[in-house]
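In the previous chapter we treated chains in isolation. Here, by contrast, the input contains two separate entities that must be folded as one system, with a combined length of 788 residues.
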Amino acid sequence: MRQRDPRLRMPISRRQLLAAAGGLAAAAAAPAVSGCTITKGQPPIDTMGLGKDAASAPGGGKRKHNITMYSLWGSTVGQGLVNVARDFEKTHTDIGVRIVFAPTNGSTQQKLLTAVAGHEPPDVAQLVPLQTPQWAAMGIMTDLTPWFERDGLSLDDFFAPAVEAMTYNDRVYNLNWDADPNFPFFWNKKIFEDAGLDPDTPPKTIDEVDEYSAKILQRKGQRVTRIGMVPWDIYGSSNSLFTWGFAFGGKFRKPGSDAVTPDDEYVVKALEWMCDSAKKVGGPDAVSISPPSLTLHPFSTGNLAMAPLVAPNLRDIIDAKPDMEIGSGLLPYQPPGGTHVGQGAWIGGWSAFIPRYAKEPEAAWEFIKWWSASDEGTMSSWKHVGFPVSYKKSSSLQLMKKDPVMGPYYDTLVNSSNTRPPVLVADYYTAQLDDQISKAVYGQVKPLQAMRNVKENTMTELRRLQKELMGR
Amino acid sequence: MATRTMTSATSATTGRRRRTKSPMRNQNVKWGLIFTSPAIVGLLMFTAYPVLMSLYYSFTSRTMVGDISHWVGWQNFRDLLHDGLFKQSLWNTGYIIVLSVPIGIVVAVFLAVLLNLKVRGQSVYRVIFFLPSIMPIVATAVIWSYVFNPQYGVLNNLLGYVGIDGPAWLSSPDWAKPALIILATWGVGNLMVIMLAGLQDVPVELHDQAKVDGASTWSRFRHVTIPFISPHLLFALVTGLIAGFQYFTPVYVLTGGTGSPAGSTMVSSLYLYQNAFTFFKVGYASAMAWILFVITAIVAIATFKWVGKRVYYGGR
């Protein structure tokens, strides 16, 4: 028998080799199966200044409490929030704030909701104020009332419309840090002049808006190339109707209840006006006043004479078109339901809350309180983010009043008495409004019938949810 | 003869039994399972479990958050029958499928035939026509939102050259769905490659014989090419129908998830997403998903039964 060359002798059996290979394969595949990615060290959470890790303690090492907050914004607002968190960390040396960029998907906070569903939420999250009842009733939010009362805060310290959406069943569930006053009214003075109108006299009523619009309208073939106003598209269908519905004197819900009233006489009148305005110009699809690559609001094109605008849009327009002469004032109203200019304005924005299952609720409350209900925090927010605040004691409001861009928003903020209806099925309600308003504006359904459809569907959904919540 | 047959059958059975008990075979099974275990675990955890749970949820009032879940029997399915928006979403989905799938196949075959021609720079043309299908869907949708702009868009400008005042496309309830169909047709590159592969399998001799017999180009295409690529056409039809019921991303990007204008682009998947993630109605959305699954399965089976027998599998 031939002696085997020792160099060729297998030091391990084939079975062992297979076992080792199988083990390696399993080890390599395990992270993939568990959804993890193999990275060396910590993956970066901050690539564009939109997130940050919690700061270390002054003497080095970890802080006593570290909280995580989901930030929804990109660009300068996202970077501003990071700086707000840094300001907080300077004065609260026990608490570190980690900011995670978690943008919305359309109108949905998918990342936040899946985190909450998985019982692994951040310590601080945000929501649109009108969602408060549903999110509170479903147990997504922590009741802040004990801390709110313990720390001597008062609801009177906040603007009334914001308070309406901060509370549910007399409990405080969030603090509004961004009181978005929707909207002041802006007009392009040059278009007014070209149309033979006084550039310093804006329309006070909806009837006057119609008069002005008739003089401003210009067409090229079937297409509208210059228009007075686009009342059916003020940041979406439902926001349009909220604005004009309030301006006509309408109500969208029964006060103090979850029952919705989209068939309110004045709400329907407002929708009829929106539909008539679209019909007069040949339908919504006849309006073509801005190029598709335009990231600015169509008001910047000089083809739209009058528009309610949010502050970031106005700021961008002023930056891009410094020569554009823009007049500002309060929204037109429509008697007999409406009684004064600016009546259509409502307060939107964003509120901060502590999700259920948050690991550091006490530290999260300290941050929310500082950010939304202290002079120091609201000033930091104004300085870095530039959004109006709800906290009436904030010194930032005086700065806002004097600010050349934000001045009109101050007037709107202090005069506004509305908020979008914070009812138990608010998201469903607004989705129904979006659908039916759009159909009415395109002439597929009569305005009154559209609003009756919204009411019927929303009340059915409300009863279903109430039944579910009672049975929980 | 009978004895021999019986003997060989017995020995085959014995052999099978022996193979079953063979330590080597057991080892193979064991190691096979070990090697495939990551995939099996992944499939069970991330596909089988969610599928089964969605079936269970479809009979409950399960919400995405808030831990609400009651057994409601067939209530979700009954509610869906009366849900106007769900019916509209099914209609919109069907409309898009019925038009986009056949148009996509015709365009893919047409391009494949062209790209099968022996011309200079053939591979360059193939790459050019394939490029759109490797573009990310979101980027494609954003680009097409520019193309469809009524006043400044490329499409209406081109139509303007031939004297047509183009429609408002995505801003018009009547033209939004045709716009989506055009967008879907733009990405037929994958299908085109499959058809191109099919065309390579068509025997040249058959074409030559048909030519000698005096068959026209159309006759050769109709009676030689089409039968040989019919398995590819069936594949394109079935996968197109299934993908059509899952149509989501372009609509989501182009309409911001609203299905506008006037609900004209509210497809079933979008409505399902809205119910699950905006209204938190996971039970209701699950019922919707199962209805869509059943419809898709029926359509796919019917297609196999109806079209399948017309497919030519090389003489078999």
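The radius of gyration of chain A is 27 Å. Residues 194 and 421 of chain A are 40 Å apart (CA to CA). Compare these points with the single-chain example from earlier in the chapter.
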